Amino acid sequence: MRIIIVCLLICFTSNVFTQNCDVYKRHGEIKKYEACKKQKEAYKFYQFTKEYQELLDEAIQIDSTYDNAYWAKSIAYLKSGDFLSWKPLIDKAVELNPQMHLGYRGWCRYQFFRDYKGAISDIEEYERIIKDDIGYCQNGDYHLLIAKAICYKAIGEKDKAIKIIEDYLKDNDEESDLYNYYHLGVLYFERGDYNKALSKLEKQKESNNLADNRYYMAMCYKKMNNTNKYKETILEAKKLFEEGYLLNDPYTHHYDKVYLSQIEEEINKSKRFNP
Predict the structure, then answer these.
(1) Disulfide check for 188: which of 106, 169, 193, 264 has CB 3.0–4.6 Å away?
(2) Cα 21 to the chain's mean position, in Å?
(3) What Rg, from alpha-carbon coordinates, does the chain have?
């Protein structure tokens, strides 16, 4: 799981560093070409340094309509938690180039702010603009359609969330996305359809074995009065958690994340059940 995430992050970072400024030059956009070259100079420095920000400011001075410089400036503020500085910068980038930055802003509104309605609005507007595959979120964990489904779940529209994920999986079942079946399984569990929840959680187990997933499998067995499987599976959840196989993100907590305290509480409860 961690290898997949790191690879996705490396791919994203490489795309930034290898940005082809000559594209602007070929289209006669000389100011954007010069601004782009200045932006690439900034990447020699750490994102939180004065030099990084000053070079991006110079890029904006060269061409105030160069959207990538606003976007690049915003990232450091987002990572440092300065959301008040992040917001006008990313909004400007979206204003100048919604096709490039709207999906990213939608993901950030979900991941960092839990602004579910705002995220849905951005992602759905992005869908209208792209009219094709809208792709993945910034860290590579989710396709943006799955992120949208989670947002719908968060505002209470669970049936709509299920439909979005099921529809996505019809066309993308062979893709090794990290958590699709997990979130779908949790949705079915919360709806009380434990057999269907188990089938989805088993599917998740095959591709990406997680403590969180095993916890919900245990909860399904508990609801179905399968005491032996309940006890066995909740202990497996703890073992996986201690080995580091769990939902994990360096900046925020995943939706539907399960914590060790929940697992241990359930283990204590399981001791009161007789087979």
Answers:
(1) 193
(2) 28
(3) 22
The 3 state secondary structure assigned to 120-173 is HHHHHHHHHHHCCCCCECCCCCCEHHHHHHHHHHHCCCHHHHHHHHHHHHHHHC
What single string gives the DSSP state of each residue in 234-252?
HHHHHHHHHTT-S---SSS
92-106 in b/e form (b: 16+ CB < 10 A) is: bbbebbbeebbbbbb
pTM (predicted TM-score):
0.88
How far apart CA 256 and CA 56 sit, in angstroms, is 37
Q: Which pLDDT tens digit goes with each residue over 144-202?
A: 999 999 999 999 999 999 999 999 999 887 666 789 999 999 999 999 999 999 999 99
Least confident segment among 89-103, 124-138, 170-184, 242-256:
170-184
d(CA 62, CA 166): 47
- Give the Cβ contact number of residue 188 at 10 Å: 21
